[in-house]
Design goal:
It is built from 13 helices and 19 strands. With 457 residues, the protein is of the alpha/beta class. The structure holds zinc ion.
């Protein structure tokens, strides 16, 4: 096991110019840049090639070929590595995703699928989401293997292949993890933190919960007819009335252990009227004035409950015909622990009109928040402090969902523990000219090394 002191010594040695060997920053950067070169966007069939390349790296680093399984699913694939431990404790799982969001080279300054190092950054689609942490995890496992580290529990590495779309590979992996008796999951795809212009850390978020995403369809149908002969009912007018009700509705305020901790911390740091509202809400989650203030800010409205908004509308088929159909999409971000069906039923109640059909528009999943386990909090606290001295992680809830959703739904506590900390203005996840600072690599390696050794010692 590495102590914090030796991890710090490692950080210092990583800062020095290095030739590439397992676990050093130069090797990890090279792996990251090579990984970006696989255009692992949906439908290009590059995920299996990337998975094979990762497997070859792991095998070259001493992992048995038969401990790594790559399973295709359509044009994509998932990768599963099992590093057998002594079995002293139940298995631990690590996760990341190999796929990336589409990027149009016409819009980028550089080719998104050719990694470029420039001005202290590595540019390329996936440079941060999620090839950064995926690479840091793989590099750390290779380094630990090379050093003869012997985990006290099985370590499972689950790399999914369609996180940015359906999450079908992660759903299968969550079932595999459950069957393998996995105790908890550490996901590199959420959590992490921000630094200021001087590189000084501002905060680190340990993500213990995610809101789930769901779309609902509100549909009104009508016999229609000629527009010169209006009838008592009109599909567009009926839908418009329902739309107004949904837009005006506020779901009940909610709080969990995670949001209580994050709002308390943010309230103290934010100060002013908004900070005071956060603290008042923590003290009394029924405080109507605090709830109103938090709902008025786009930064906090999503933290205190489920939100639903009308996002798309279509209706009618000709300028001179009574509409036969009108349809609204309502997009909801659901507070952890509340089911997709509960929200559907609530929307139906809000609309209160049998002429409006409310249905779930897709295959969506919800999951409970993960408990703030002391072993995880302690290990993440050590890892963050080793990588960025002086920073204390604060639990948080993500507004969007990752693969962790499937593991939580399967009953496996899951934590977003990215090793990446960078400036807010450099974050271009899913956007143009995605990049990571080269200087973020060495601390991320310290982060993952301390975290994995703490959890598997
Ligand atoms: Zn991601």
């Amino acid at each position: 096991m590495k102590t914090i002191a030796s991890a710090l010594a490692l950080a210092l040695s990583l800062a020095a110019p290095a030739h590439a060997s397992p676990g050093d920053a130069a090797d990890a950067k090279a792996m990251l840049m090579r990984g970006i070169g696989f255009a692992t966007v949906q439908a290009r069939g590059q995920v299996p090639a990337y998975a094979e390349w990762l497997k070859a790296r792991l095998v070259a680093g001493g992992f048995a070929a038969d401990s790594i399984t790559i399973t295709p699913l359509g044009e994509t694939a998932r990768l599963h590595l099992v590093w057998k431990g002594s079995g002293k404790r139940p298995p631990l799982a690590l996760a990341g995703h190999m796929d990336v969001v589409e990027a149009d080279p016409k819009d980028w300054t550089r080719d998104p699928f050719t990694a470029v190092e420039d001005a202290g950054f590595v540019f390329g689609r996936g440079a941060s989401d999620n090839k950064f942490d995926l690479t840091m995890i793989v590099a750390t496992l290779l380094a630990l293997k090379a050093e003869g580290f012997r985990p006290a529990r099985d370590i499972h590495l689950f790399l999914s292949g369609d996180e940015e779309i359906s999450g079908a590979t992660a759903a299968l992996q969550a079932a595999e993890a459950k069957a393998a008796g996995v105790d908890l999951l550490l996901n590199g795809d959420s959590g992490g933190g921000l630094v200021d212009d001087a590189g000084k850390p501002i905060f680190y978020t340990l993500s213990g919960a995610e809101k789930s995403y769901a779309d609902y369809a509100l549909t009104v149908t009508d016999p229609g007819g000629h527009s010169s002969r209006p009838t008592a009912t009109n599909a567009i007018a009926t839908l418009a009335a329902a739309t107004a009700k949904i837009a005006a509705y506020r779901f009940p305020a909610e709080i969990s252990d995670i949001t209580r901790a994050s709002l308390r911390d943010a309230g103290t740091k934010t100060g002013g009227p908004l900070g005071a509202a956060m603290l008042a809400f923590v003290a009394n989650p029924a405080d109507a004035a605090a709830i109103a203030s938090l709902r008025a800010s786009p930064d906090t409205v999503g933290q205190i409950g489920t939100t639903c908004v009308p996002t798309m509308v279509k209706g009618g088929h000709a300028p001179n015909a009574l509409p036969q159909k009108a349809e609204l999409n309502v997009n909801c971000r659901i507070f952890p622990g509340i089911s997709i069906e509960t929200v559907r039923a609530e929307l139906e109640k809000v609309v209160a009109d049998p002429a409006v059909k409310v249905t779930v528009a897709g295959d969506f999943h919800s999951a409970p928040p993960s408990p703030l386990r002391p072993d995880v909090v302690a290990a993440v606290t050590k890892a963050v402090a080793a990588a960025r001295p002086g920073v204390v992680p604060v639990p948080g809830m993500d507004a969007g969902a990752s693969d962790s959703l499937f593991y939580r739904a399967a009953g496996i506590p899951s934590y977003g523990v990215s090793g990446l900390m960078m400036r807010g203005q450099d974050v271009f996840i899913h956007g143009l000219n995605e990049r990571v600072p080269v200087a973020a690599i060495a601390p991320a390696l310290v982060h993952w090394r301390v975290l994995i050794t703490e959890m598997a010692k």
